[in-house]
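Async update (no meeting this week)

Hi team, since we skipped the sync, here's where things stand on the single-chain job. The sequence we agreed to prioritize is pasted below, unchanged from the tracker. I ran it this morning and attached the output directly underneath so nobody has to dig for it. Comments welcome in thread, and please keep replies under the output.
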Amino acid sequence: MENLKKNKNMTHLNLDASYSYADYLTWKFEQTVELIKGKIFEMSAPKTNHQRVSWRLCMHIGNYLKNKPCQAFAAPFDVRLLDKNKSVKANKDIMTVVQPDICVICEESKIDENGCLGSPDLIIEILSAGNSKKEMKTKFELYEENGVKEYWVVNVENEYVLQYVLENEKYVLAKHYVDDELLKAHIFDLEIDLQTVFH
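Output:
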């Protein structure tokens, strides 16, 4: 493991190398990063409208989840995803740590002081100019592979939401919601008027 504790930036990292959650825990970067299958992905600082939409979604979801067993979390919040071929949960064996914009977790045993260990039930990613390709491809495949039951991709600029639902271990586009529609979650009876999110 590289000694990166004193580094405030990523200049000393070999971006072609593979890293684990054990490495991730030693990093003290000023910049936020995610680890996907051992590879480092830099995260850009979210813009104002991104944060506004995130907050409004959190308010809707938080109000819905009152007195329910599921819990919602907003970034920064580490979600550690396990390789399906590994049953060991040691930090050195975890190669993926992501920070979804919003996630909902219904199994309390997955939540610990470091975040979530295992797949959330619902993940919401809010696109920005710097992350669209990553969210649409890399994370889509990652969440599908890890069995996240429902995945929303929120496009702030064009004001729509793509809702994907896991069926037979593959994502199916359940609905493409536009800004004046009532979004209906698949795994909960949650409904959100998107006008209150985008406007």
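Quick observations from my side:
DSSP finds four helices and 14 strands in the chain.
Residues 1-6 have pLDDT under 50 and may be disordered.
Reply here if anything looks off.
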